[in-house]
């Protein structure tokens, strides 16, 4: 039986080819270096699961950026590491300094655990967060292919590679000039994407001995707002979903001693004491203001929801969120290669990118008080008298209220990230048999964030509200006076807010070749070194504590570390059909010490149509600069915190059971240890009949000392597991809590990757069908040592959702100048949370289950015009809307839907035109 398809299938370490790729033209067999190994070999000889995506396949699928690309990979996590949900996730694990950035997260282990390479070498981490490579910095228009290693690779590449490796391979010897443009518009409006790119090259490396290539791409993506999509709706009471906020554009009035409502009020004929009221609620007119509704107190289990909010309006701020930020991005890369002779060549790469993203959040919510001096005065022109509804209302006293301050505008941040990398390298052969490579590179990434609307100085805002000139009770059709708007503008802060910068200087080299012969074949080896210096700076341009609800973070200045790594690898043909790969790497960090990580893998081919493969390895993840050195912030928890341990021993004592004030520290932890992992794969590749092949790879990962950011509330709630973070005085009373980054327990995850491929010919047509799927059997997590591991697969989670099954399937057909591609992206459903984070009361018949989601894309390509390629595609062909989920934006961005799983753009038309001049 011929093994042509088997060879193609296991090419680039033996994995089934890309799900969307077209049938490739035969290539001359040559020795190449493949992701996951430093030994050059014939491509089909590898043993690890690597998926390959060609640029042609990416372009025909209508993919215009690397974030979209990673979302088509079944092994990629379904998480909050994209530009939409990643920067709006609430809670301890939120990343509030990565506005406009996107990250890779294989196996759902997070961006820190996925290594992103460019031509097999590291690139700089994002300038603000410093945690991982921003995918926006990758020049997608200049790549030749993308290799995704679905296995740990710390033994080859060092830290970050626990989840796997994404290696972007640039074109290296391009001659000619081509221009292309892409337009992608949505049927329902918003989210228009535009792209123009140019690729040019001079010189033939083989004939002329030199080549220079330049590529430049400019993308412009329009804003897509929740208001433009009906499914983005946090007010669906029939499904148990309603907003739990009374901070409304038409303010609700609060109770308080010395204020108009006093400490509480009663309604005629009702003995219940209520704590909040709103004029529109009392009139039954909450919905007269867009986005507002009557507070659905009957949907909340907490009894205080009734006493607090029965006579208040609510506000669906989830429907005001931005689904996709407006983004403008420019990438450029240049590569020049000089062939010294047949054995040696030198080259340089210069990479630059600029991404500007405008992040937008809802207006600031303000709760006024007498203490802050921002209560509405009795003599104010807009003083609201509710005495006709509430008999005890005292109109001789000031009003305190809760208000969504819409006149200040949306909180808007402008994030500009610039990346630059230059590489000077040499590679070739020594003595005709030893392959070598050397490289010296410098990478920098800077991010600057400016506040451009919606933010202001706290003291100025409070003083302005206290004048009574600003009206928090605007009726429909009304607007603030010119004097009020001038006063509002005088309180704003507009300007530079924070900045960050990372740098990486790297000198690396390796040598590989055959060292001796065995009867079963040649034994090959590789050895190399990797020397790096990494730095990180993060600072505030203004005192963030003075800006109301600012996204401020503690400054981190002058952090740096040196990394010295040495590694070796050997490929041994144990038998004629069995080869074993052995690798070990030692990394020595100037701040966390040294770690040694080995790896062993095998490839066994007993017959021409069967390959068995597997690996076992150890990995590590070094803590980031932010996790180690972020400035310690001392803050204060609100009144009434309970010390569960102390209160049980001292019942009724307010020093334990109702702590009046409790300080806590949060920020970096210089005592963090690296995360460590043990993992492995075991797989099979078969070709039962000509034209059909399949691969199945089982994988397992165990991680210890997981680095997590914990709030003081979480520390206090888990006092039995974290006593060392609760600092007590000699009397046993809590002095303060140490929160922030800690080494927690760990996780265990198991699953399998399935690859299928079939192809053939019929009546002059060539067709290829493919599937790339990932089954996650288990993802168990324990936050702290001593806690039992908890299963997370198929269950709603506020950070990542671990889906049971995801796949990308496609079929392509080609004949002559025509080709077509039909693609399906599918993900299984999962158990939803109880409405409103478990605090709500589900309606009768409510089933806490989010349905599965699938999206179909169809494209056609025509090459009949000279030097011209035209591709037209319809993405989300059947206009599939996201499935309903009962969460609101208090857990993760998206009200009634989830951006981590589904596509909000709806049906769109994509047109790509490419012209080659020579």
3D architecture notes:
By secondary structure, this protein is mainly β. It has 2 domains: 4-226 and 325-361 and 414-455 and 492-595 and 612-632 and 667-706 and 744-916, Beta Barrel (Maltoporin, Chain A); 244-315 and 365-404 and 457-491, no CATH class. Helices cover 8% and strands 44% of the residues. It has 13 helices and 46 strands. Strand 44 (853-862) and strand 45 form a beta hairpin. Keywords: Cell outer membrane, Membrane, Receptor, Signal, TonB box, Transmembrane, Transmembrane beta strand, Transport. Belongs to the TonB-dependent receptor family. Residues 47-165 form the TonB-dependent receptor plug domain.
How do the helices and strands line up, and which of them pair or pack?
Blueprint lengths: L3 H6 L1 H4 L16 E2 L8 E2 L7 E5 H6 L5 H6 L42 E5 L2 E2 L20 E7 L4 H4 L6 E7 L5 E11 L6 E10 L7 E12 L2 E2 L26 E3 L21 E2 L1 H5 L8 E3 L9 H6 L3 E3 L6 E3 L2 E15 L2 E18 L3 E3 L33 E4 L6 E20 L3 E20 L4 H9 L15 H10 L3 E24 L2 E20 L15 E20 L2 E12 L3 E15 L2 E12 L3 H5 L3 E5 L6 H6 L4 H4 L4 E5 L8 E15 L2 E13 L2 E4 L1 H6 L8 E3 L5 E5 L1 E4 L2 E17 L2 E18 L7 E2 L13 E11 L2 E10 L2 E2 L17 E2 L2 E10 L5 E8 L32 E9 L2
Helix pairs in contact: 8-9
Subcellular location: Cell outer membrane
Family: Belongs to the TonB-dependent receptor family.
Membrane topology: Multi-pass membrane protein
């Amino acid at each position: 039986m011929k093994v042509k398809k088997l060879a193609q299938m296991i090419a680039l370490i033996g994995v089934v080819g890309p799900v969307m790729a077209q049938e490739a033209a035969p290539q001359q067999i040559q020795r190449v270096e493949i992701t996951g190994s430093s030994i050059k070999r014939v491509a089909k000889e590898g043993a690890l699961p690597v998926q390959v995506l060609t640029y042609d396949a990416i372009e025909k699928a209508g993919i215009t950026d690397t974030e979209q690309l990673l979302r088509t990979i079944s092994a990629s996590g379904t998480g909050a590491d994209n530009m939409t949900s990643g920067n709006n996730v609430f809670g301890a694990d939120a990343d509030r300094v990565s506005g406009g950035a996107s990250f890779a997260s294989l196996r759902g282990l997070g961006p820190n655990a996925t290594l992103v390479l460019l031509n097999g070498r590291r690139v700089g981490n994002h300038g603000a967060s410093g945690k991982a490579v921003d995918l926006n910095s990758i020049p997608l228009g200049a790549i030749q292919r993308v290799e995704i290693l679905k296995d740990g690779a710390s033994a080859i590449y060092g830290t970050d590679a626990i989840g796997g490796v994404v290696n972007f391979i640039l074109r290296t010897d391009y001659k000619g000039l081509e221009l292309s443009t892409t337009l992608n518009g949505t049927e329902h409006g918003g989210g228009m994407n535009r792209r123009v790119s140019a690729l040019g090259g001079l010189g033939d490396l083989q004939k002329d001995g030199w080549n220079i290539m330049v590529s430049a791409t400019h993308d412009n993506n329009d804003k897509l707002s929740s208001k433009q999509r009906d499914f983005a709706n946090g007010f669906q009471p029939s499904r148990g979903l309603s907003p739990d906020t009374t901070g409304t554009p038409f303010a609700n009035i609060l109770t308080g001693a010395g204020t108009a409502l006093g400490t509480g009020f009663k309604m005629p004929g009702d003995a219940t004491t209520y704590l909040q009221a709103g004029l529109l609620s009392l009139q039954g007119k909450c919905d007269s203001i867009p986005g507002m509704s009557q507070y659905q107190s009957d949907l909340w289990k907490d009894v205080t929801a009734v006493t607090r909010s029965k006579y208040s309006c609510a506000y669906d701020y989830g429907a005001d969120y931005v689904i996709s930020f407006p983004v403008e991005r420019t990438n450029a890369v240049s590569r020049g290669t000089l062939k010294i002779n047949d054995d040696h060549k030198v080259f340089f790469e210069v990479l630059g990118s600029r991404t500007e993203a405008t992040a937008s959040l809802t207006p600031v919510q303000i709760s006024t008080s007498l203490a802050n001096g921002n209560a509405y005065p009795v003599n104010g022109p807009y003083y609201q008298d509710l005495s006709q509804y509430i008999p005890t209302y005292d109109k001789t006293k000031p009003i305190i209220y809760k208000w969504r301050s819409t006149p200040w505008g949306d909180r808007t941040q402008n994030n500009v990230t610039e990346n630059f990398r230059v590489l000077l390298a040499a590679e070739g052969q020594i003595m005709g048999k030893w392959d070598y490579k050397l490289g010296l590179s410098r990478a920098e990434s800077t991010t600057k964030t400016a506040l451009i609307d919606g933010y202001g100085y706290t003291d100025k805002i409070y003083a302005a509200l206290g004048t009574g000139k600003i009206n928090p009770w605007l009726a429909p059709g009304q607007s603030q006076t010119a004097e009020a708007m001038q006063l509002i503008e005088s309180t704003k802060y507009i300007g530079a807010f924070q900045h960050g910068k990372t740098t990486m200087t790297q000198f690396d080299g390796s040598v590989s070749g055959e060292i001796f012969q065995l009867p079963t074949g040649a034994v090959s080896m590789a050895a190399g070194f990797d020397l790096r210096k990494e730095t990180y700076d993060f600072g505030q341009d203004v005192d963030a504590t003075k800006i109301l609800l600012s996204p401020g973070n503690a400054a981190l200045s002058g952090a740096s570390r040196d990394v010295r790594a040495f590694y070796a690898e050997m490929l041994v043909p144990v038998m004629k059909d069995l080869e074993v790969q052995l690798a070990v790497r030692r990394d020595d960090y100037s701040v966390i010490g040294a770690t040694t990580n080995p790896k062993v893998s095998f490839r066994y081919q007993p017959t021409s149509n069967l390959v068995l493969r597997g690996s076992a390895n150890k990995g590590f993840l070094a803590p980031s600069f932010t996790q180690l050195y972020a400035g310690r912030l001392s803050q204060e928890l609100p009144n009434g915190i309970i010390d569960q341990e102390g209160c049980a021993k001292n019942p009724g004592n307010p020093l334990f059971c109702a702590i009046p004030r409790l300080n806590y520290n949060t920020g970096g932890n210089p005592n963090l240890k690296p995360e460590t992992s043990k993992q492995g794969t075991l797989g099979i590749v078969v070709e039962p009949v000509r034209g059909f092949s399949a691969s199945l790879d089982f994988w397992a990962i165990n991680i210890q000392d997981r680095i997590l950011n914990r709030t003081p509330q979480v520390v206090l709630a888990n006092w039995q597991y974290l006593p060392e973070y609760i600092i007590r005085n000699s009397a046993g009373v809590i002095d303060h809590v140490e929160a922030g980054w800690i080494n927690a327990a760990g996780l265990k995850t198991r699953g399998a990757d399935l690859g299928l491929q079939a192809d053939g010919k019929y009546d002059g047509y060539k067709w290829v069908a493919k599937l790339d799927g990932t089954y996650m059997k288990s993802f168990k997590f324990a936050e702290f040592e001593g806690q039992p591991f908890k299963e997370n697969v198929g269950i709603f989670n506020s950070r990542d959702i671990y889906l049971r099954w995801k796949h990308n399937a496609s079929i392509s057909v080609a004949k002559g100048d025509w080709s077509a591609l039909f693609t399906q992206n599918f993900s299984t459903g999962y158990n939803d949370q109880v409405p409103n984070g478990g605090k709500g009361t589900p309606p009768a018949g409510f089933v806490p289950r989010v349905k599965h989601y699938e999206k179909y894309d169809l494209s056609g390509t025509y090459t009949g015009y000279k030097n011209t390629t035209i591709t037209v595609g319809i993405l989300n062909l059947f206009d599939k809307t996201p499935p309903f989920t009962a969460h609101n934006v208090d857990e993760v961005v998206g009200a009634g839907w989830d951006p981590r799983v589904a596509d909000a753009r709806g049906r769109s038309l994509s047109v790509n035109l490419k012209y080659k001049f020579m």
